[in-house]
Amino acid sequence: MASVASSETAPLTVEPLSERNVSRIPLILPHERVFPIQIGSELFKLSGASLSSDAPSYFSQYFVCQLESVKERGDDSSASIRTLYIDRDPVIFRDISLHLQGYHVQPRDGEHFVRLFSDAQFYSLPKLISQLYEESIFISIGHREFQIPREIFRDPGNSPNYFSLGFAAFFSRPDDLFPGLEREGLIRPPSILPPSVPKRSADTFAELLHFLRGYPIHIRDETHRQELLSDARYFHFKGLEQRLIPHSLSYNQATKRDEIVLRLENIQKSGISVLIENSDPLAGFVQYARPYVDNKPAELILEIGGESTKIHLSGGTPRAEFFRDTKARVAKLFEVISTKFNTPHHGQSTTLNNTLLSEDFVRVVLESDSAIVLDGKEHTEDSTGSSTADSTANENPRKRRRADGGSEEEEWVVKTGQWRLRLRSVPAGNGVECTLVATKLDAMSSQLARNMSRGFLGS
Q: Structurally, what CATH architecture does the domain formed by 34-196 represent?
């Protein structure tokens, strides 16, 4: 049992919790006694049972010292207990007194939460602090208040995030409630404002929360997608971002492989892998799995747009040239593929020959089943073109018919293209190269075709 006080001023001890006494209130203060506490202008009278229910606390320590002093002086304890005066908000203390009396107190809004939390630590109420530590986070986004369960922010794919890295740290560790603040000599807790992010959209954040709770994602249009992506990146929801980026998942019956279509700018290093073919250790294809989302990789179909690709058709071997940021991104992608290809798991020590220096192009394969739209019309296999016997010509049966029979270089500007990334041995040489196998192209062969595709402003 607990020892409240004695003439020998023995140290205060509390009986440890067990199955026998787990529902009992420890005997820190006499349960039947009433102790006066004045908070601001309002007087509260709480029983020793209530004050002992969440202890040790500022209140229990104060009144234990009072009882010990009374016993030492031999005074009448019923008349010698002084009122404890504390200059804090009596409105907040009403909720705290309800907690001490055994009622569950739940924060009503962000302002109520931070005040209740601040006073709970000021009064050193361990149970209330622990309860508030597990409560939902209250935050104002775009001047609308949200109550967010903490478990949403503990998902590995979406944590750490804006909240766990930012001001939520003040409500994350019961042992260090105000990081960086020295508690020694602290008269009162620091002033805390309710968490607020006024410059983001409340409607967009509400949708992000809806998705984080596991509901299906419905994208109305590209503008809507960009709004969601912008705020998902702002709040550092990496897993949700991967679900929001444009993509297409399907199963190809012809190849008997799963496929994923992604834009070049959305490719991440951690999602790339290489599958080596059993028949040739120096051949394979590139796979991709969205980080935090996909359980297994699928064959990557890479989409490159923005008219940043040019295909040079002359010379018997089509090659692709890239411009602006696309060139740097493709070069970085090939570096990652080379690293993945040379992992100990694959047992390879051959590097990719594609370095994408200023003079380098990437080998392109135009197959008979490549879907090509050229100058706004479907481009079919050229039945009149001359055939060659070499393997390169067999790989690229799609030839552009030359109306003038001239020898000037044939070029296509690809508005948008989708490509498979195939690894293969370099013909007549050592090493491995990554070739782009066209699956679908929308291309232009001349400036006239580009001008014909223009639209007038506002039309």
A: 2-Layer Sandwich (3.30)
